[in-house]
Design a protein that fits this description.
With 169 residues, the chain is mainly beta. The protein has two domains: 1-70, 2-Layer Sandwich (Phosphorylase Kinase, domain 1), CATH 3.30.200; 79-164. Helices cover 12% and strands 34% of the residues. The chain contains two helices and eleven strands. It is elongated and about 50 Å long. Mean pLDDT is 78; it is low at 60-64 and 66-70.
Length: 169
């Protein structure tokens, strides 16, 4: 009933999950009521396998029309599935600017160009826990790993050579 994002609560220094309703749901009173009831029920539960609800917030609409959402990467290409690095300084994403889906990394927030990480297509990008490695699925469905190093200027990354983790024989 919505998209869930992993985020960092910088005030309380903890990882959180943020659930965002699609535009079509946010303008539907019945679905908003259902979402609110879901949050209230979950907030009343106390179980180690059920996440805690810390708040139910509404954000004003932005110029993009989506409540509280601002584009991180905005070009004329299809760019999606952004993943923030563990330190929150980089975003890895998929883009079709090369003519097919590839993986790119760019600084967040701030200036600096993006760097293409994949070499033969890619999707489903994820950061390693230390932020020095990216994982993605290549077009041939191989799981790939790429070492990532921040350049001396702090505004660009240097990607190593992608390596298949489980090469097919």
């Amino acid at each position: 009933m919505g998209e869930v994002y992993r985020a960092r609560d910088t005030k309380l220094n903890r990882d959180v999950a943020i659930k965002v309703l699609p535009d079509s749901f946010a303008n539907d009173a019945d679905r908003l009521a259902r979402f609110t009831r879901e949050a209230q029920v979950l907030a009343s539960l106390n179980h180690p396998n059920i996440g805690h609800i810390y708040g139910l917030e509404e954000s004003p609409s932005t110029s993009s029309g989506r409540a509280g959402v601002r584009p991180v990467v905005a070009t004329s290409f299809e760019e999606h599935n952004g993943q923030f690095s563990p330190d929150g300084k980089w975003v890895a994403f998929e883009s079709n600017k090369s003519g097919r889906s590839e993986i790119y990394v760019q600084p967040f927030p701030g200036l600096g160009g993006d760097a293409q990480v994949s070499t033969a297509g890619g999707a489903q990008v994820r950061w390693g826990p230390n932020g020095n490695e990216l994982f993605y699925v290549a077009l041939d469905e191989q799981l790939m790993a790429v070492p990532i190093q921040v350049a001396g200027n702090g505004q660009t990354v240097e990607a190593g050579t992608p390596v298949a983790l489980f090469p097919s024989v």
